[in-house]
Amino acid sequence: MSLSEIVTTCVGLVSNDRADRSGGDAGVGAVADATDAGGSLAETVAERKRGTGRAMGAVYVIAGITHFLAPKAFARVVPPGLPSPRALVYLSGIAEVAFGLGMQFDRTRRGSAWGIMALLGAVFPANVYMATDGVAAEAVPDRLSGVASAGAWARLPLQGVLLLWAWWYTRPDDDPASGADATAGAEPGTTD
């Protein structure tokens, strides 16, 4: 399977999220149909959250695959004190692909988001090493070394943004259409 076929498959997973929500339990389907007619802000946010989670997962799958396509480039940014740089590159690539795939499904999204947060913490030393030791500038032609160095430094605060994005998916969903916390909005004394 080529990289373009993998990207196409990931994009397809992201775009069919609406079809995934319409099936299942009659009660949940009825709630989903009712919210489509005049959905609330919370339901709209939950729908977007699901879609952006799938997009985030696709990004991690693609990033993980690149670890196998260019292992030497990734091994170069592994801090010198760590053993077996190439093995660490492959391990982090496997983790990115696995967690990215896990973000595609409602059932595994929270656990995958926690895994992504742990992975971001684990690779942060490599990002610091890349910025402080000029490793990024060494990987590009001289005329682009300034851009590569600036990009390496910009990547450090970006890690915080990526952590917050992943953390959002660790939070419980209050969307009745997803089936999570579907009875939370029920009136007291009523049951489904």
Can you give keywords for this protein?
192 residues, elongated, disordered C terminus, 9 helices, mainly alpha
Structure in words:
The chain has nine helices and no strands. With 192 residues, it is mostly helical. Helices cover 72% and strands 0% of the residues. It has helices at 3-15, 17-22, 26-38, 41-69, 71-75, 85-102, 106-132, 135-138, 145-168. Mean pLDDT is 77; it is low at 17-37 and 175-192. The protein starts with a helix and ends in a 24-residue tail after the last helix.
Q: Rg from C-alpha positions?
A: 20 Å
Number of helices: 9
Basic shape: elongated
Quote the distance from N terminus to C terminus: 46 Å
Report the strand count.
0
Uncertain segments: 17-37, 175-192
Instruction: Decide which structural class fits the backbone.
Output: mainly alpha
β content, as a range?
under 5%
Largest sheet: none
Kindly report the average pLDDT value: 77
Oligomer: single chain
Helix content: over 70%
Write the H/E string, N to C.
HHHHHHHHH
Topology summary:
Blueprint: H1 3-15, H2 17-22, H3 26-38, H4 41-69, H5 71-75, H6 85-102, H7 106-132, H8 135-138, H9 145-168
Helix pairs in contact: 1-4, 4-6, 6-7, 7-9
